[in-house]
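In response to reviewer comment 3 from the previous cycle, which asked for concrete evidence that the modeling workflow produces usable outputs, we include below a single protein chain processed end to end. The sequence was submitted unchanged, and the resulting structure tokens are shown without manual editing.
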Amino acid sequence: MMNRIEYLATEFRYAIEDAINAGEFDDDINFRRFPCGCCGYASDFLAKYLYQHKITTWYISGVYQKEGQQHTWLQTEGMLIIDITGDQFKRHRGVLHYDKSVYVGEADSFHRLFKTQNPIIGYQEPVIDWLGETQSQRRFRERYEKIAKYLPC
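The workflow returned the following structure tokens.
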């Protein structure tokens, strides 16, 4: 199972990078410095992708108290961490230095640095009522579709 998750996570990371390189996010301030500052968005989108592959995840958000640094990743029921933006810390020195663009595995020394909050279910199909999509649902769908164009069939 871990190999399958790692494969899917890596393909998704590549799809984000391909979408950015193709200009899909040129007008999106949140993705201008990917992976920096994108861990929440990337985790949300990855959670949907994994959900489509029958993998349930939880959204984990934590804070490194000494520096007030926040980070977000996904976790499976089996406690596997799935992090596709850890390399945003590659320029940090000391304990916060981390250069893995995709990490799937048990909690390592980097992820244990963060004091985590209660996990939230990673992805659930949105409820769209008779009024249609909300603005945030539409924005999520549009961003996800930009990435999905670069996923393998």
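The two ends are 20 Å apart (CA to CA). We consider this sufficient to address the reviewer's concern, and the full set will be provided in the supplementary archive.
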